[in-house]
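Trying the structure run again after the queue cleared.
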Amino acid sequence: MKEVEEMMKENEFARYPRLDTVLMVEKFIEEHSGEFKVYQLWKNLPKKTMYQTYKVIIVYLLDINKIAVDSEGKIGYIWSPEAGQIFKKKGVKWE
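Done. Tokens:
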């Protein structure tokens, strides 16, 4: 989250996104994993979003390990709900 905070300080036009916007971008990335680079993805979103706000979402999703960028610069969705279930089965608790 530190990267998001730094980005917000550096860019006076960046805005914190609404939750529905974050979820829309995340869902679009999941459905089109590995198809688009960062700018192309933004151009193809179902709803228009300010680019600065979109970049905040991308940095956030990278920070929480839901997405990754491959060697070609394409964005892929890497989060797995099954992985979260493994922690529950092993008795791992968040404190």
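Strands lie at 67-69, 75-77. Worth checking whether this holds up in the mutant runs.
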